[in-house]
Amino acid sequence: MTTKNSNKKRYINREISWMYFNHRLLQEAADPSTPLIERLRFLGIYSNNLDEFYRVRVATLTRLVRLARTDPSVYSYYPDNPTKILAQINILASRQQAEFEQLYENIIAELESNKIRLVNETELNREQADYIRHFFRSQLINALNPIILNGKFPELADESIYLMVSFITKNGKRKAYALVEIPANEFSRFLILPDKDEEKCVILLDDVIRFCLPELFASLGYHDFEAYTVKITRDAEMDLEHSANDGLPEKIMRGVKSRKRGNPVRLVYDRCLPKPMLKFIVAKLGFSAKDSLLPGGRYHNFKDFMKFPDIGDGKLTYPPYLPNRVKRIDEAKNMLDLIDRQDLALHFPYQDFSYFIRLLREAAIDPNVKAIKITMYRLASNSRIVKALINAAQNGKQVTAVVELMARFNESDNVNWSQRMQDAGINVIFGLEGLKIHCKLVYIARRGGDMACVCTGNFHEGNAKLYTDVMLMTGNKNIVKEIASAFEFIAHPFREIRLPRLLVSPHDMRKKLYSELRREAKNAIEGKPAYLLCKINHITDLDLIDRIIAAAKAGVKVRMLVRGNCSLKPNLSDNIEVTGIIDRYLEHSRIFIFGNGGDESCYISSADWMTRNLDHRIEVAVPVYDEEIKNHLKKIIEYGLRDNVKARIVDGSGENNFKTAAPDEIRFRSQEELQKFYAD
């Protein structure tokens, strides 16, 4: 378990390290080498991340602060003072917000130099104004339901944005207020307008509504209006009500609905909002001066900018990239037979995810396949994987799908898919409350030789286009047998189990990682090759960090690629180097390589080195024995460590300085070089 009273100077607070990570996305938006519209989309990714951070992590801190008022012992479960951490977060958020707004202005100006103009409601010519009126009258008006604020204040929905409208009388006084929710879930946030003086023009849906306010409120008799954007972020933790009559899916669906009414944790508003209007809404929402009140620009919910239209003729976005084909798979008549002869590894999105779907499709019709078992955490909205499993069940295979219903923000999709699979005759197993099933495993029972797959990311077609993940397909009898046993552990997590090769949480992954680090330290002292090469998303478990630091001080060379949270302070040992990469694809694979005196031990997993993954989730790390695949995985890490274009130095300062090429060093961008490697 994580140390409660550790020396805090040895670590970086988890939430603060996350703020440092998210700032790297602003750096990417500022990088002139990133295509212009992609820079705008990085602002959207930054905004979306920050929203989720407030809904989950800041909401948790806020609850801790409230609980501590009546029970100070709460602080013993959190290594830092949550009140102080909240204050630091708000300072960083405010600082980053100012940087965000300046970046947005710079990018908009650069778009204009490329003859793309983002116009507002005051900058329209006659043709554009007529175009907007037609769009408003024929489509948009029927999706708008204004609320006049003369009684009970409505519950503002999380993730939605609102225009707070004031009606202006002839003598300039604000007569009343109204709220208009912007229907961004029904329409694109961006409306492409007729060109203006050879410029391509785009207007936000917010400004379309602003322009048409006189029509929207025509029946009230007002002619002048002011409208300012406001947005609320709510606690995303679900309350699962206990009822003997309901199963977990029913509780989940009620919890999803209750999430929309969670306690407010942040109010973001247009800083031009007049003080009386701000005072009014703050009072109605029950915020205090200590809460997260964040003034911003004219527009919010920048996550929609992730879908900003490509109207630059393809010159202002990344060029399309088709994943590479794998010749030996394409030439194989049967993937199942191929895997039986040799292990395969795939690296997405550089290689085609459709090979995995092909494997399931072939298993669904193969007469030698008796059963298929799979764990499912997040599923695509139109999952071909589920369709292949349903096809297998229709062909008489025994199909078991372990579905994690508590995959945050995907709960309702997972419940719906579970019901469809059950209707098709698939045996659907749900995890236990409080013990998420996060591992990504497939087991195929086949006469002549069973086989298995393990992936570092979700079995999700959409993610596979954007996330870098690796998948191992193996017929190794020892590994396959233990993966089959892992499914028994998933079904009965409190039974005794012996899996000598796999690392399984919460059973023994922590203990085995400690053992690997102790062996590396011993080898270092004895003068043998001793190192840790690690690619991971997050490292925040304090006990594991202590073990890494101790190993480094014993002489173990620790070189890590950490994309997100990093509570480890590299400056505690000269033997520790931590690098973070933000680029076109989201770095997501988890690979652990230990020197082992020259006979490297190599694992892949979906588990980060966080307390939740080691102690409170079912996770599996699988050893890789095939020498060709081990070298392949090592190359992935080494490419990342060589990156001198998109790599940042993660040193705990939050500066996120780029690793730059020396004068005699060749420019090396790891994702670009991996694309070339797989194309050869």
Secondary structure topology:
Elements: H1 14-30, H2 36-68, H3 82-113, E1 116-119, H4 126-138, E2 147-148, E3 161-168, E4 174-181, E5 190-196, E6 199-204, H5 205-211, H6 213-216, E7 224-234, H7 248-259, E8 264-270, H8 275-285, E9 292-296, H9 327-330, H10 335-341, E10 344-348, H11 354-365, E11 369-376, H12 384-394, E12 398-403, H13 411-423, E13 427-430, E14 436-437, E15 441-446, E16 451-455, H14 463-466, E17 467-474, H15 477-491, E18 503-505, H16 509-525, E19 531-536, H17 542-553, E20 557-562, E21 576-581, E22 586-587, E23 590-594, E24 601-605, H18 611-615, E25 617-623, H19 627-642, E26 647-649, H20 670-679
Helix pairs in contact: 1-2, 1-3, 2-3, 11-12, 16-17, 19-20
Mind explaining what this structure looks like?
The chain has 680 residues and is of the alpha/beta class. It folds into 3 domains: 8-307, Polyphosphate kinase middle domain (polyphosphate kinase like); 327-491, Endonuclease Chain A (Endonuclease, Chain A), CATH 3.30.870.10; 503-679, 2-Layer Sandwich (Endonuclease, Chain A), CATH 3.30.870. 38% of the residues lie in helices and 21% in strands. The strands form 4 sheets. Strands 14, 18, 19, 20, 21, 23, 24, 25 and 26 form a 9-stranded mixed sheet that branches. α1 packs parallel to α3, α16 (509-525) packs parallel to α17 and α19 runs antiparallel to α20. It starts with 13 loop residues before the first helix and ends with a helix. Residues 1-6 and 238-260 have low confidence and may be disordered.
